[in-house]
Amino acid sequence: MNEITVTLPDGSSRRVPTGTTPGTVAAGISPRLAKAAIAAAVDDHLVDLSWPLERDARVRVVTSDSPEALHVYRHSTAHLLAAAVTSLFPGAQCGIGPATEEGFFYDFVVDRPFVPEDLDAIERKMKELAAQDLPYERQLWNRDEAKQFFAGRGEALKVQLIDEKTEGQAEVSCYTIKDRETFVDFCLGPHVPSSGRLKAFKLLSTSNAYWKGDAKNQPMQRIYGTAFFSDKELQAHLSRIEEARKRDHRKVGKDLGLFTFHHWAPGATFWLDKGTTLYNALANYMREVLFPAGYVELKTPLVFNKGLWETSGHWQHYRENMFLIEGRDGEEMGMKAMNCPGHMLVFASQMRSYKDLPLRFHEQTPLHRNEASGVLTGLTRVRQFSQDDAHCFVTEDQIGSEVEALLRLVQRVYGDFNLEYEAKLSTRPAEFLGEVATWDRAEAALKQALQTAGQTYTVNDGDGAFYGPKIDFDITDAIGRKWQCATIQLDYQIPQRFDLKYVGADNAEHTPVVIHRAIFGSFERFIALLIEHYAGAFPLWLAPVQVTVLPIADRHADYARTVLARLEAAGLRAEVDERQEKIGFKIREAQLQKIPYMLVAGDREAAEGTVSVRNRVLGDLGSQGVSEFLEQALREVRDRSAASAPVASEV
RNA sequence: GCUGGCGUAGCUCAGUCCGGUAGAGCAGCUGAUUUGUAAUCAGCCGGUCGGGGGUUCGAAUCCCUUCGCCAGCUCCA
Q1: Are strands A513-522 and A384-394 parallel, antiparallel or unpaired?
Q2: To 5 degrees, how large is the angle CA A15–CA A18–CA A23?
Q3: Which residues pair with A482 in a beta bridge?
Q4: pLDDT (tens digit, 9 = 90+) per residue, A21-69?
């Protein structure tokens, strides 16, 4: 009999007959490993445990400890879901059902949308199928036979998938659960060996989706679920979701009185007094960061004649997202959806020399975008918002250093908030303007800058804007959704459209390159993410109310007011709670409002000229002189210390 | 925009399936209490049940329509 050599991760190797499966290899190592095995990696390629080994290979048994295991496990759970749905809903047609970062989903074409009761029934069916420990088997089918089989079952979408994904192949990979009659899916795998492995899963929600994500295609019903190796992990995940909901910015914003909305202005924020204080603190922070970095601040019009938008190209490509207005003499106007065209006009308003570059225009005025109603979400997706926007006008050989400076700016700002983020480089898309050589130079400059700034990143090939490559930064919200915040975008087109020129050292006219960039992204979205990041317990420098003075009884009110006056004179945002309530009640309210410092003032403090300091996290800190407290608090503000603001993940 | 769900007092929610005078807690107001580190007690006020239309003797409840919110899809900061 022919033998092959199997090399294990520890470097050891063994001879086994050709056709041996990784499952057998695992069993040969130890029964416990065989029991824990989910799948196998053969020469770093994930396969089933039943995959016959035909030649010498490195084999690693994938168990629940392996990083890839959960993905396989969830994908197998998605198959179980599809098996349950096709069993309970005869005629249901399957689309695709992948594992995701948090779980899995599967899309179906069904006669009617799923309702919550359906999910319960489907989940019960899944548990039943899991309890039967049905084998998952990979089979190679003749391609035409497979197409006929799926066509015969009314699975037109599967036939389409086979057509598209296996062109020119003689055989296609299919997975059965138990047998052909019970469930079959066209799928590359790998999968767990049997349904009994699937121990802990839960269906979470349903929603509409379209075949291939295109609204022009057939509407489908999607079922989301999640799965873990143990019930304990599943329960932990579910309670994490529950905890995250508690710090959802929409809830916290309401509880803390930061902002509100009204149905007469969908997608537009009413910033309440406390929210406005927070907003202004961030706006001023950004100015403090940008002015020393060579930026100047502009305020440009909110409404422009359509001529501007025609010149910029937005009239042709972006009009449906713009709020349009008719002027009193019938002229067409558009509210600005971005600042760039206005900034181009400012650049062009006077002669510019190469000595002026880089020239950096910063602007915080509001933008309006007529977003589709279905996409509006709290503060993270709105119709009226302000960016910490800027446009940097540079020569082509200044691109690298400018982008590097921008990367360091992003790192510095996000560092000030202890935010975690991910950077993505998006490169030349299929449809683009300009020369390939220019794009290549620009992409190389961005990569170089990323490396110099020590910024890790992933590449999104072909995802750049039509006018230039870009680097985007994502921050994750409380419930795991990623939101783009900072962005750095090169633009070779807009300076040409506006015919921008500067006079070079050679006394000739040249066209500058524009870098569109934002660090917060928008104030609205950034504040939403900050609220969730801090669970509403902002660091002292951001807290809308920084200190509250709590007199014990009415006779301490005068003293409390003198303390308040000193706090306010020193520039702190403070208030006094003079209500006729017990101190425990006042403290509870201040804690719920997440006020960083509570200063208790009673007989003792009034006599000594002190305050009894309570920190919202550390609790009672004992009594301090007012000056002593002030000095300490002002230092905390100045340092933008997060000392008393644990981030949500630590709460 | 699409699909589904939801909309009852300032807030959180019950009542809707099966039509019969709209409920609770918190908040607010008034009074008492003068209080020492996460809720003092009592009383009172408060809702054309998102808007409009329809069915019915009678609609929060059933039907239609419209607006908003939520989830997802698509799209974006």
Answers
A1: antiparallel
A2: 80
A3: A476
A4: 999 999 989 999 988 889 999 998 899 998 989 899 999 999 988 888 9
A552 in contact with nucleic chain B (CB within 7 A): yes
In which element (H, E) is residue A518 found?
A: strand A513-522
- What positions of strand B are covered by protein, i.e. any atom < 7 Å from a CB? 1-5, 7, 11-12, 32-40, 67-77
Using CA atoms, how far apart are residues A56 and A2, in angstroms rounded to an integer?
A: 11
Tokens of A35: 């029991």
Determine whether the distance from the CB of A525 to the nearest atom of strand B is below 7 Å.
Answer: yes
Please tell me whether any atom of strand B lies within 7 Å of the Cβ of A484: yes
Asked if A611 and A599 touch (Cβ cutoff 8 Å), the reply is yes
pLDDT tens by residue, A521-577: 999 999 999 999 999 999 999 999 999 999 999 999 999 999 999 999 999 999 999
Q: How confident is the model at residue A650 (pLDDT cuts 50, 70, 90)?
A: very low
Burial A30-61 (b: 16+ CB within 10 A, else e): eeeebebbbbbbbeeebbbbbbebeeebbbbb
Rg (CA), chain A: 31
CA A360 to chain centroid: 28
CB A79 within 8 A of CB A183: yes
* Contact yes or no for A456/A474 (Cβ under 8 A): no
Q: How far apart are CA A213 and CA A241, in angstroms?
A: 26
Q: Where are the domains of chain A?
A: 3-62, 69-237, 260-300+336-533, 547-638
Q: Which residues contact A336 (CB under 8 A, 6 or more apart)?
A: A300, A301, A302, A303, A304, A342, A367, A368
> Is there a contact between A401 and A519 (Cβ–Cβ < 8 Å)?
no
Q: Return chain A residues 334..363 having CB < 7 Å to nucleic acid strand B.
A: none
CATH number for the domain running over A3-62: 3.10.20.30
CA distance linking residue A134 with residue A465, whole number of Å:
49
pTM, to two decimals: 0.89
Compute how many other C-beta atoms are within 10 angstroms of the C-beta atom of residue A173.
17
CA atoms within 13 A on the CB side of A318: 18
Residues of A assigned a catalytic role: 340, 369, 387, 389, 391, 470, 516
User: What's the mean per-residue pLDDT of chain A?
Assistant: 91
Residues in Cβ contact with A329 at an 8 Å cutoff, skipping those fewer than 6 apart: none
We find that the CATH architecture of domain A260-300+336-533 is 2-Layer Sandwich (3.30)
Q: What is the pLDDT of residue A487?
A: 95
Q: Phi and psi dihedrals of A533, rounded to 5?
A: -60, -45
In chain A, residues 59 through 88 whose Cβ sits under 7 angstroms from any atom of nucleic acid strand B: none
> Closest Cα partner for A517 from A471, A475, A453, A461?
A471
Asked whether this chain's domains A3-62 and A260-300+336-533 adopt the same fold, the reply is no
Which CATH architecture best describes the domain A69-237?
Answer: 2-Layer Sandwich (3.30)
The DSSP bridge partners found for residue A575 are: A548
CA dist A341 and A328 (Å) reads 23
CA–C1' A551–B32 (A):
20
Using DSSP's 3-state secondary structure scheme, residue A212 falls into: helix
The predicted-structure confidence for A67-94, as pLDDT tens digits, reads as follows: 889 999 999 999 999 999 998 888 888 9
Torsion (CA) A422, A425, A429, A432 in degrees, nearest 10? 120
In contact, A449 and A403? CB cutoff 8 Å? yes
The class that CATH gives domain A547-638 is alpha beta
- Asked if A155 and A93 touch (Cβ cutoff 8 Å), the reply is yes
